[in-house]
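Notebook entry, structure prediction.
Reason for the run: the old model in the group folder had no record of what sequence produced it. Starting over properly, with the input documented here first.
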Amino acid sequence: MLLPTSKRVIQEKDTISILRDLAVTAAARSYSPYTGLQQAVVVLLEDGATVPGVRVENASFSLTISPLINAVSTLHAIGRVDICAIVSSVPFNRSDMTYAASMPNFEWKSFTTDALTTTHDLPDPREVLSPLLPDWGDDPASGAREAREISELAHIPESDFPVGCVVRTKKGHHLPGVNVEHPDWSQILCAERNVLSTVVSYGFSDIQQIFVSCPKEPGGTPCGACRQVILELAPDATVWMDRGNEPPGSMRASELLPGHFTGDILRKRAE
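New structure, fully documented this time:
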């Protein structure tokens, strides 16, 4: 039975307030060495689970990942897009609003400066949904196979070109990423950047291995944009590339993009 309208409005406002507080807390995990801006969103799912997304900057500023794109991409990688609400720690900017308005298969019932909802009957927020995969060790063949399987969750209506990525941290945590497309191609996020931004959102660190799979192109490697982000967020990692029926190939992150822009001078100016 639905609550009376006045009670539903109060309940919705209370839920939005809780999510806003969670977003403010998550914002502290932002990677923002160039601007110092700490921003985050929290997504509420139909069962009350929540998923964070934080701002992830890059020395190449155009590669900066917004909290909204970060969170939505994480959701696709873990196979959950049953969104009830998205609440931001700061007002959404014009790019965020355009991205959200163009998200396929979503009809926003409420669209305010810092909150989007798909229903007026929001569930009570509960625990943060874990993005972790089972620990299968550090075997390269297993990692490549896992990335290939994860690619099935890719959201690729524009290209029909799935990519999967799995990272393994020093402590043995495994996290997934897939490419997530959008009608505006400038808003598309590759699998590698997806998982790296998820790592930041959840406060993990010390990435040791990155496994990438392009099932439709076994010889595929990370694009230039992903290489730049990998070098900044996981400079000591080994990148393993799925080769289909052949053993996976590998490169050190430091070999991916010779002469890459480090952004060191920008960090010094921000300090």
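Summary: The mean pLDDT is 92.
The old model has been moved to the deprecated folder.
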